[in-house]
Amino acid sequence: MTPDPAGPPGPSLRTEALEELLVERGLVDRAVLDGFVRTYEQDVGPLNGATVVARAWTDPGYRAWLLYDGTAAIASLGFTGPQGEHMVVLEQTADVHHVVVCTLCSCYPWPVLGLPPSWYKDPAYRARVVREPRTVLAEMGLDVPRERRIEVWDSSAEVRYLTLPRRPAGTAGLPAEELAALVTRDAIVGVAEVAAR
Amino acid sequence: MSITTDTTGPGAPPRANGELVFAAPWEGRAFGMAVALAESGRITWDEFRERLIARISVDPARAYYACWLAVLEEVLVGAGRIGDGEVGTRATRLAGRAAGHDHAPPHPSAERAG
User: Where is each Nitrile hydratase alpha/Thiocyanate hydrolase gamma domain found (chain A) (predicted)?
Assistant: First the structure.
């Protein structure tokens, strides 16, 4: 972007100027700043999927419907749209851990999870999570104990999978809105667990 | 994390299905600076948020992050962290850099994608 020499500096330059001043004065650490930007861009939300999960955790009737007919139960909350025509929800249990991949491309339930993160589209994830899921999950920070079976689900244009994560201990009595704030995209894809704050 | 941005109402940042949407890298930087300063206690999140809502209400047509940046500067000047007019002076100096150096720092998401 070429600034107009006659006009006042635009917001991009003002932001850069402010950042320089704050870093020079030790008020902001650039690495910390990078981390916040990354976190909020990539890891916060997606709210729709989190809302679905929190509802299932607090409403047994909805939970049963969601696991029986995910597309309809999700649509009932107003989350419909392209790439969400046929969604299947898999329940995480003490015995089985589900993880979702699209081995061919990056099929992903857009209406609930937004656009897929970059690692989901990565050829290494797509190939390796099928061959060695326990290792890949461990590399991503999720240790699945040996006694818990891992099932890998391959999303396609016809069927898009998502998981219903396990509700973390210590969250009894929390309202659905607060529960939704705990649910991450990664947990719904099955590469993380939901943690209590 | 103790900082929670509004998800609804006049002070809520633009989102698409819960993900924050930054139209340009500077918006992400401006956002991150406010969050970092609030996390470290150098600005008060509630005060920032209230001023942001007030700013948007007087000029609803203005772009969300333009309001955000203006309020952030205002709060920092008010707290004595930066001088009045200092950002403008520095920005003008940055604008005068030699060609090829007039870009903002790389966007973190661009780094990760690469």
Answer: 13-192
The answer to whether the CB atoms of A36 and B32 lie below 8 A apart is yes
- Of A59-63, B18-22, B107-111, the poorest mean pLDDT is in B107-111
Indicate whether A64 and A107 sit together in one domain: yes
Q: Say yes or no to pLDDT of A2 above 60.
A: no
Q: Which residues of A touch B17 (CB under 8 A)?
A: 45-48, 110-114
Q: Give residue A91's domain range.
A: 47-189
B113 SS3 class: helix
Q: Could you tell me which of A123, A121, A90 has the C-alpha nearest to residue A107?
A: A121
Query: What pLDDT is attached to residue B12?
Result: 73
Structure-token pair, residue A68: 């029986």
**Across chain A, where does the E strand assignment appear?**
87-91, 96-101, 149-154, 160-164
Interface test with B, best of A28, A32, A41 (most B CBs within 10 A): A41
Report for A3-7, A106-110, B39-43: range of highest mean pLDDT = B39-43
The helix/strand/coil state of B53 is helix
ipTM of the complex: 0.78
- CB pairs A-B closer than 8 Å: 153
CB-nearest partner of B88 from A9, A41, A111: A9
| Shortest alpha-carbon distance between residue A36 and chain B (Å) | 5
The CATH number of domain B16-96+104-113 is 1.10.472: yes
